[in-house]
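pls design
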């Protein structure tokens, strides 16, 4: 068993103002996406100009925050946004849904495309490799916050989380998700987009890759206490929400390559 490092969730306090590591992980993810986006925007065939990347990140941030918070309320049954609407901007308190944030970004990118007259399929292919590092950093934020921990385990790297009342050694599933749906997915998408691919195929790979890797990581993650397992005694809410991503992603890839072969 490995000792949990017990990191203070507050990175810095200045008087009454506290800066949380969880919030900083989102900032770090957006900064990385901005940097990589500017680099990719300089390449031949980019659907977006370098001076439009600032707008892209701004729209994406709005979609992540609004979609993530609203998605959490819808998918995980939290009514707190109705009681306290301003909680939607307090992301350092936790309660973010990836699937809601994903839908929020899709809507935000649609508006960005309308505003800048960009082809939607080209843009979603462009942003596919920009997202996973931010997802990885968000899982580090979950780890620091001691939330979304794993199922009980007896592996040598199992951890006892100090705020877990059960006192059980558990899989550090946040770190599994950091590695799988974060860094591994980034490596796959970065490699995939290094050469010209059919339009929409990178977006399809993101959907398929995230859905598969998230579903695999969920096998080690403790389901939300107020939800439990949704089906068959082992299928979680995260797996159910990822299933449409797998199906749609695979369908998009097949369609994109078939369309490219006909052209």
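designed seq:
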């Amino acid at each position: 068993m490995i000792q949990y490092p017990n990191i203070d969730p507050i990175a810095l306090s200045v008087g009454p103002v506290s800066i949380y590591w969880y919030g900083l992980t989102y900032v770090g993810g957006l900064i990385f996406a901005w940097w990589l986006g500017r680099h990719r925007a300089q390449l031949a065939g980019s659907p977006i100009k370098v001076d439009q990347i600032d707008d892209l990140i701004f729209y994406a941030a709005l979609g992540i925050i609004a979609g993530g918070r609203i998605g959490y309320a819808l998918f995980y049954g939290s009514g707190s946004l109705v009681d306290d609407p301003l909680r939607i901007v307090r992301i350092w308190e936790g309660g973010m849904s990836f699937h809601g944030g994903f839908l929020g970004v899709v809507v935000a990118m649609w508006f960005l495309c309308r505003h800048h007259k960009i082809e939607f399929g080209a843009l979603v292919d462009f942003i596919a490799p920009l997202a996973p590092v931010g997802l990885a950093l968000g899982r580090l934020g979950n780890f620091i916050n001691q939330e979304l921990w794993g199922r009980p385990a007896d592996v040598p790297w199992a951890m006892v989380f100090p705020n877990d009342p059960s006192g059980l050694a558990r899989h550090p599933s946040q770190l599994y998700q950091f590695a799988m749906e974060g860094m591994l997915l980034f490596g796959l998408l970065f490699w995939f987009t290094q050469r010209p691919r059919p339009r929409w195929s990178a977006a399809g790979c993101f959907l398929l890759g995230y859905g598969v890797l998230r579903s695999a990581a969920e096998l080690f993650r403790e389901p939300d206490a107020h939800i439990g397992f949704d089906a068959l005694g082992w299928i979680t809410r995260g797996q159910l929400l990822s299933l449409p991503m797998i199906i749609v992603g695979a369908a998009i890839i097949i369609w994109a390559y078939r369309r490219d072969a006909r052209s």
